[in-house]
Amino acid sequence: MALQKLDRLQDLFQTMDRALIAYSGGIDSTLVAKVAYDVLGDRALAMTAVSPSLLPEDLEDARIQAATMGIAHEEVYTQEMENPNYTSNPVNRCYFCKSELHDTLKPLALQRGYPYVVDGVNADDLQDYRPGIQAAKERGARSPLAEVGISKAEVRQLSQHLGLPWWDKPSQPCLSSRFPYGEEITVEKLRRVGRAEVYLRGLGWQNLRVRSQGDTARIELPPELIQDFVLKSDLAQIVAHLQELGFLFVTLDLEGYQSGKLNRVLERQAVTV
Description:
- 47% of the residues lie in helices and 12% in strands.
- It contains 12 helices and 7 strands.
- A 4-stranded parallel β-sheet has the order 3-2-1-4, sandwiched between helices.
- α5 (93-112) packs parallel to α6.
- It is globular, with a radius of gyration of 19 Å.
């Protein structure tokens, strides 16, 4: 079934003369870039938006992956941190992020002769609360993975099938997703949480989140790794390092990592209304 969807994805790009890919370096947009390049060759361009919400390490990964695939790759700076509708971190924060992204990419695409701007939204993303998807649609962006029904699991399956060495790379949404709605986002807070995650990955814990709430860092790991983390880590050293980064308190989420956990507050509000 996944290979049939890959055929449809390739057919979809065959209908495009030229395409600009909103390319973060994540597993989804990288698969889109790979297939676009396989079909369109030098008529495909991967464009990465650079801002404080993107880890420098993830930007470097995007560069390496693009070079490995062979696709042309450029970078553009976005200014969402100048928009108080974004930095105040409302429940629809992602709407303003994607508005800035596509308000930046669309004129560039048209100026450079690319009639299509495409992103890495997959079919599973449509089932979650993703206000950024609406912003992208309003600006004419297309989501090829979602259009042909490719799920998150199938993204990894197809990436492995196509020989992409990063097919099992952990998902890495923008750093602003680490903060509860309503807490102001600043460049310093983004840097702090980003450095914390890079540090913990350097200790061997690849699939994790450091949620930031005020001066507290809450480490989230897959549930099956929590016991190993407690038993095998130098907890005092971890606490000391995160405090050096600016956190006052360091905690471990006993429930474990779950994508979209911070959206629970929206579900509770819906129930109480």
